[in-house]
Design goal:
Helix 5 packs antiparallel against helix 7 (about 85-100). The longest helix is centred in the first third of the chain and has 16 residues, at about 15-30. The chain has about 100 residues and is an all-alpha fold. The protein contains seven helices and no strands. It has two domains: about 1-35, no CATH class; about 35-104, AhpD-like, CATH 1.20.1290.10.
């Protein structure tokens, strides 16, 4: 089973209808265009990096790996954030991604 953070498990427990609706929306968004799963996860990883969202960065790193991305693909995505999001954002994302990759 996929890793789920405790906060997300709590959200699902306390708000099951909203959680189910959110999951359906995610499926609709994923099915709404031509991008394959790996590409979608890399795009979502880039968005998470831009937001400096540790949880989302770790989640989409795990999901990208599961979809076939290699560690070097993910590190390249982080490196691309340097000139767009800035050094502090990029280096924080690299730390969080390395934490996930180190567990692989």
């Amino acid at each position: 089973m996929a890793y789920l953070p405790e906060v997300y498990k709590g959200f699902k427990k306390h708000f099951p209808e909203i959680s189910e609706s959110y999951a359906k929306l995610a499926v609709s968004c994923n099915d709404g265009g031509p991008l394959n799963e790996k590409t979608r996860e890399m795009v979502k990883l880039g968005i998470a990096i831009g937001l400096s969202s540790e949880g989302a960065i770790k989640s989409h790193t795990r999901r990208a790996l599961a979809a076939g991305a290699k560690a070097e693909d993910i590190r390249h995505a982080v490196l691309l954030a340097l000139t767009t999001a800035g050094f502090p954002t990029m280096i924080a994302a690299m730390k969080w991604i390395d934490e996930v990759l180190d567990k692989q």
